[in-house]
Write a structure and sequence with these properties.
Structural class of chain A: alpha/beta
Shape of chain B: globular
Largest sheet of chain B: 2 strands, antiparallel
CATH topology of the largest domain in chain A: Rossmann fold
Distance between the termini of chain B: 24 Å
Oligomer: heterodimer
Order of helices and strands of chain A: HHEHEHEHEEHEHEHEHEHEHHHEEEE
Number of helices of chain B: 16
Strand content of chain B: under 5%
Shape of chain A: elongated
Number of domains of chain B: 1
CATH superfamily of the largest domain in chain A: Response regulator
Order of helices and strands of chain B: HHHHHHHEEHHHHHHHHH
Number of strands of chain B: 2
Largest interface: A-B, 32 and 38 residues
Helix content of chain A: 40-55%
Number of domains of chain A: 3
Distance between the termini of chain A: 12 Å
Number of strands of chain A: 14
CATH topology of chain B: ABC transporter involved in vitamin B12 uptake, BtuC
CATH architecture of the largest domain in chain A: 3-Layer(aba) Sandwich
Strand order of the largest sheet of chain B: 1-2
Chain lengths: 437, 425
């Protein structure tokens, strides 16, 4: 969900250039001739014998742990640390402890590239959990690919992150999958026909809108109006007048929570009481606190809701609070899951880079899926995660699970159990990422 | 003779613009219906009125000292924070807030009193009075600020609003005294760069005090008269109470400002300084005092509309003044910078033009569009492809407003009502 971050947009061209220039060689023919430090070191790393067979097993965790997006990255780190501490307390894997190597990329793609070079050249590291920002994942993946080390990102949603590399995986949805899910949900679960789309004129907004519209066409949904706005807009009344004249059944906001909150407020003020639905850009307590009563009933798609996760998720939330004295957010759970997937891989195939890759490759269907906190995770050939998007609804000033979920029809997922979530829990699944511009 | 020609060209301009707008109204009416035209017009009025009153602040100061006060948008932003600080206790993390607010109130009140107390001959005595007044104001403000904790008494909304207007006027005067007055005789570029620096400083200072999160006034303090209930004008046309108040208030303020500038002694002094600062000072006009009044007045007008702007749905945050400021500055330029009536007109024009832009998102439902499709001039597929490439007009709302301004400037470089002046050129 970090694709819209300013850094991503600023650095993508630079990253693309550096990937082409420095790490552009296909991983198969990486014997010499490399021009960058990353390239120069990785053959040496590859020639190293496999990771040592005694001492701790080292897994790297990379993300923004300082700097602007530190608040977003820290839950990821704390989630994985909690997982590692639990494993180690139980005696480790086959008697070997897990050591986490925490690497800070500060949410900055240049730092991410340095981290990747450093991590990839250390033969003891057998897998990487991270990075967080899509821009950082894109910057780092070249070095990991050359060193044949798996990178499993719990947060990068940009479509291009997993492309052109066999070693990049993620256990979160992609932006375009989310757009499709929104169309599926409106057509299937809500049974509505006429959709008005208001979208932010940036990569995130237009991407979400495009993937939505494609799927909407297939499902026979009618996009009755399509209105764009710029990030700087503060008065959406004219846009809403255009929306109103198209008499929609539902309004889709493809944008971030700050603008969406203003849109919701002004829509209600103009007497437009049509239901609002949005992507994870709206999945932030900020949306509710800014829009107040106007936010009631809004539906949003999100990567994970503790409510739907059932008892396991509640248990994790309690452990997390006990350990860190903080409420976990969705990315703490996704980071924990990513760690558990790596652990599962080590148990199955042993602590080697190759073994982990082979395990991830084998998790490719609902039958072989890894059953974690956030649901059943499995990967397609690209390394993208095929996991149902969850839908939250604003009720009494909180995000709670919507009555109808996308998975309702699928028999593989157990029904969401009724649980007494502590009142402050759902709101803490804070999509802070939305704050990054 | 000269005035006769001037009046005639004024009428000509008005006719051209009125005719152009009537033609636009006709086009929209023929394509959709007259109600649609009116609805978008009504949506643009409050926004235009707010921009117009901010634009006056730019124009007034420019008219007198030829300085584009880029920090004016930040003055606007500060006024919303002044209201907020009187209504909401500082958030958990902002432990420095009370001290910084106290220091700010002390500084702006002390500086304003220093400017006002020019009759006191001895500098030390004048300083002592200013410091005493600042300290008293800071102490009083500390008592007025709401305490953290439930059930604490807070000021009524309108009291906070009024006090914030006073503080903002003081901020305007302080800005002039500390940042611009020392540079009065320096090259204009230096003052301009100072203005940009001041704008950045104020943004960051606000962020230091109040943090960077977006906030609204609590819903509970919103007075009923500024509510969002719709006032029905015609069956198809309504606007919220708040918007009605904004439009009425803006018209009253504009009329009041015209009266002030044209009829009062100070107003005459302002016009004299705008014509020729040196000669005016030789005739006994206290230029520094006039400039201070211009700053206070501009800041006050911004503070009058700022809380209403927030109630319209724009959250308060330290960068909120930037976009509004640029828009208002463009309006002042469009109307002819230095000309107060022009700034008002420019603001209304910018507000209304930008309100109409999203209407064209539904271009494919226009009557003429249908006709053109039937006639075979355009195809719906072709239009869809065009939109795919260029995007919807709605996202170019601001771009269209600025383009309109550029277009006017190209054909009339002095702006709508600006007069060519060799001195200012």
């Amino acid at each position: 969900m970090k694709t819209w971050q300013l850094s991503a947009r600023l650095f993508l061209p630079f990253v693309a250039a550096s990937l082409l220039g420095g790490c552009g060689q296909p991983p198969a023919e990486k014997s010499g001739g490399a021009t960058t430090p990353a390239g120069a070191k990785s053959p040496a790393a590859a020639k190293q014998p496999a990771a040592p067979s005694d001492g701790p097993i080292v897994i790297a965790v990379a993300g923004p742990f300082t700097g602007d997006s530190a608040e977003l990255g820290l839950p990821l780190k704390m989630g994985t640390q909690l997982g590692a501490e639990k494993i180690n307390a139980a005696g480790g894997i086959n008697g070997r402890k897990i050591e986490l190597r925490i690497e800070d990329d500060a949410g900055n793609s240049a730092d991410a590239q340095n981290v990747a070079t450093r991590v990839a050249s250390d033969p003891r590291v057998i897998a990487v959990i991270g990075h967080y920002n899509s821009s950082c994942s894109l910057a780092a993946k070249g070095a990991y690919t050359e060193a044949k080390i798996v990178m499993l990102s719990p947060a990068s949603t940009n479509v291009t992150v997993t492309k052109d590399s066999d070693y990049v995986y993620r256990n979160i949805f992609t932006d375009d999958f989310q757009g499709q899910s929104l169309a599926d949900y409106i057509a299937g679960q809500l049974g509505l026909k006429r959709v008005a789309v208001l979208y932010d004129n940036d990569d995130y907004g237009t991407g979400l809108k495009e993937s939505f519209r494609k799927r909407a066409g297939e499902l026979g949904l009618e996009v009755v109006s399509e209105t764009a706005f710029a990030r700087e807009t503060t008065d959406f009344r004219s846009q809403l007048e255009t929306v109103r004249s198209s008499t929609p059944d539902i309004i889709l906001i493809a944008g971030l929570y700050k603008q969406a909150a203003v849109i919701a407020t002004q829509a209600r003020e103009l007497g437009i009481n049509t239901r609002i639905i949005g992507g994870d850009g709206l999945f932030s307590p900020g949306y509710i606190s800014l829009a107040g009563a106007a936010a009631e009933g809004t539906l949003v798609t999100c990567p994970f809701l503790f409510e739907i996760g059932g008892e396991r998720a509640q248990k994790f939330a309690e452990e997390y609070r006990a350990r860190w004295n903080k409420d976990p957010d969705a990315w703490a759970a996704l980071g924990y899951d990513a760690f558990q997937i790596i652990v599962e891989a080590i148990k199955k195939n042993g602590p080697t880079r190759e073994g982990i890759l082979n395990y991830l490759k084998s998790v490719n269907s609902p039958e072989t899926a890894f059953d974690g906190l956030t649901g059943k995770t499995y990967f397609d050939a690209e390394g993208d995660c095929k996991k149902a998007v969850q839908v939250a609804q604003v009720k009494n000033g909180k995000f709670v699970a919507a009555e109808k979920q996308l998975t309702d029809a699928a028999p593989t997922t157990p029904p969401a159990p009724k649980i007494n979530a502590s009142p402050d829990l759902p709101t803490t699944t804070e999509s802070k990422a939305a704050e990054g511009k | 003779m000269a005035t006769e020609r001037g009046r005639q060209s004024g009428w000509n301009t008005a006719l051209w613009w009125g005719g152009g707008f009537a033609l636009f109204a006709l086009v929209i009416t023929l394509n959709r219906d007259f109600e649609t035209f009116l609805r978008y017009l009504v949506l643009g009025l409050p926004q235009g009125a707010i921009i117009a009153l901010i634009a006056v602040g730019y124009s007034m100061v420019y008219g007198i000292i030829q300085l584009i006060n880029f920090a004016h948008g930040e003055v606007f932003m500060f006024s919303t924070f002044f209201v907020l600080m009187l209504l909401v206790p500082p958030e958990g993390g902002q432990t420095m807030a009370p001290a910084l607010i106290g220091a700010t109130v002390f500084l702006i009140v002390a500086c304003t009193v220093w400017v006002l107390a020019e009759r006191i001959p001895a500098r030390w005595m004048r300083g002592a009075v200013a410091v005493a007044a600042g300290a008293a104001a800071a102490a009083a403000n500390a008592r007025l600020m709401p305490a953290t904790g439930a059930g604490a008494a807070i000021l009524p909304f309108f009291a906070a609003y009024a006090l914030a207007i006073v503080y903002t006027c003081c901020l305007g005067v302080t800005m002039d005294l500390l940042a611009y007055r020392p540079l009065r005789h320096s090259p204009r570029l230096i003052a301009l760069i100072t203005a940009i620096g001041l704008s950045l400083f104020l943004q960051n200072f606000a962020q230091l005090i109040w943090g960077s999160s977006s906030r609204y006034f609590p819903a509970s303090v919103r007075p009923a008269i500024l509510g969002s209930q719709q006032v029905t004008l015609t069956p198809a046309l309504s606007l919220s109470r708040l918007d009605l108040v904004i439009v009425v208030l803006a018209l009253a303020l504009m009329a009041g400002l015209q009266l002030f500038v044209m009829k009062t002694r100070t107003g005459r002094a302002m016009r004299a300084c705008a014509q020729d600062r040196v000669t005016a000072s030789l005739m006994g006009v206290e230029v520094n005092r006039v400039v201070a009044v211009a700053f206070a007045l501009g800041a006050g007008l911004a503070a009058m509309v700022a809380p209403l702007y927030v109630l319209r749905g724009t959250p308060i945050h330290p960068q909120m003044g930037y976009m509004v400021g640029i828009l208002a500055f463009s309006s002042a330029v469009l109307g002819g910078i230095g000309n107060i009536t022009g700034a008002m007109l420019g603001g209304m024009v910018i507000g209304i033009v930008s309100a109409f832009v999203p209407l064209f998102d539904a271009l494919d439902r226009f009557a003429w569009f249908e006709a053109a499709v039937r006639a075979g001039w355009i195809t719906r597929e072709g239009y869809a492809e065009f939109v795919q490439g260029f995007g919807k007009p709605g996202q170019y709302q601001l771009a269209v407003a600025y383009a309109f301004m550029i277009l006017v400037i190209v054909f009339k470089p002095t702006g709508l009502l600006g007069k060519a002046s060799a001195k200012r050129a």
